[in-house]
Amino acid sequence: MTTRPAVDDDVLTALGDLGSATLLEASGLPIDLPSRLRPVGARLTLAGRALPVQAAEGDNLPLHLALEQARAGDVLVVNAAGGDHGYWGEVLTVAAQVRGVHGLVIDGGVRDTEAIAELGFPVFASAIAIRGTSKRDARGAVDEVVLGRTRVRRGDVIVGDADGVVAIPADRAVRVLAAGRARQTAEAGYLDRLRAGELTLDIYDLRPTTESGDDVD
């Protein structure tokens, strides 16, 4: 198992408060997970430390095995190759909550969505699917998975909300937090200027400039 620097709870909470879009833009890093990962159920926000899981298509044994390794504050981040199966449902949700798991992000399907909503467990999935799964793939949790353009390693910070999901490298978490706070402050200033009557063209310096020698009417 690869050792990653631990992100403390205060940093984790502060990153979750900033939101996925602000963190992506402020980081300057390719940390966004695929847009097909959408919130399922009532909870639209998620923040925790990544516990990566690689699963064969149509097999959810790795998710059961991963829960044995899960610690309070973890988020299972599962690459199930977008499989159209119900890898996760009410039973695994209750098992995860008992272990203090903060949520699930899965490129694959989930089911029992009404029960998940009632339990208030944050889930981001690429599909809702009722087809069952086999239980033969004995990999469990792994050091890293790749979702879209982003490599997610054990201990990275996962933040999800209605806009999307990001995975912040653990060793960049404090730096991204500072950049995110600065961006949040700047955007608050932009909103004040907009309410005062300025245009986005001027605030963001977007007005086209004429090249030397061009006629200006």
From TrEMBL:
User: So what EC number does this one have?
Assistant: 4.1.1.112, 4.1.3.17
Question: What parts of the sequence cross the membrane?
Answer: none
Task: Name what cofactor the protein needs.
Answer: a divalent metal cation; Mg(2+)
Residues at which substrate binds: 89-92, 111
Q: Which InterPro entries match?
A: RraA/RraA-like, RraA/RraA-like_sf
A Pfam cross-reference name: RraA-like
Q: Which UniProt keywords apply?
A: Magnesium, Metal-binding
Establish whether keyword Magnesium is in the entry.
yes
Q: Where does Mg(2+) bind?
A: 112
Q: So what does this thing catalyse?
A: oxaloacetate + H(+) = pyruvate + CO2; 4-hydroxy-4-methyl-2-oxoglutarate = 2 pyruvate
In the UniProt record, does the keyword Magnesium occur? yes
Q: Which CDD domains match?
A: RraA_family
Biological role stated in the UniProt entry:
Catalyzes the aldol cleavage of 4-hydroxy-4-methyl-2-oxoglutarate (HMG) into 2 molecules of pyruvate. Also contains a secondary oxaloacetate (OAA) decarboxylase activity due to the common pyruvate enolate transition state formed following C-C bond cleavage in the retro-aldol and decarboxylation reactions.
- Give the record's family classification: Belongs to the class II aldolase/RraA-like family.
Subunit details: Homotrimer.
Against PANTHER family, the record matches this protein to: 4-HYDROXY-4-METHYL-2-OXOGLUTARATE ALDOLASE 3-RELATED (PTHR33254:SF4)
State the name under which the record lists this protein: Putative 4-hydroxy-4-methyl-2-oxoglutarate aldolase
Q: Which organism is it from?
A: Jiangella alba
Q: What high-level taxonomic lineage is stated for the organism?
A: Bacteria, Bacillati, Actinomycetota, Actinomycetes, Jiangellales
